[in-house]
Write a structure and sequence with these properties.
Layout (H helix, E strand, L loop, with lengths): L3 H4 L8 E8 L2 E8 L4 E5 L5 E8 L1 E6 L2 E6 L3 E5 L4 E4 L6 E8 L11
Antiparallel strand pairs: 1-2, 2-9, 3-8, 4-7, 4-9, 5-6, 5-8
Length: 111
């Protein structure tokens, strides 16, 4: 068991990344941003990316299209899509991120 509170840690120098879980093809972590800090544009080929805005707001850009996101927003990005994030507000922002790759389609069916 992990506590999200323990992963919410800010730095004046740059955004922080705190790993909560890493197992098999999945990784779960929290990204923390002070005002003005940003995650550069990048991709995660071969995986699925899910983000939950835990607190704060900012600008999430996927394939060049910026979208304003705020607390409790849930976002999905295919690993081939290029995305970035910037804390464009005045308050700190924390994002809960899951990088997943399901081993078999049977795991993704309703039952």
């Amino acid at each position: 068991m992990q506590s999200i509170e323990s992963a919410i840690e800010y730095s004046d120098k740059q955004f922080t990344k705190r790993i909560l879980f890493k197992k098999g093809g999945s990784t779960v972590f929290v990204l923390n941003f002070m005002s003005g800090q940003q995650l550069p544009a990048h991709k995660h080929p071969g995986t699925e990316v899910y983000l939950l805005v835990l607190q704060g707001n900012g600008t999430l850009t996927i394939n060049g299209e910026p979208t304003e996101v705020s607390e409790k927003a849930v976002i999905h990005a295919d690993g081939e899509e290029e995305f970035s994030f910037k804390n464009s507000g005045n308050d700190p922002v924390s994002l809960y991120v899951m990088l997943n790759k399901i081993p078999d389609e049977r795991y993704a069916q309703d039952i």
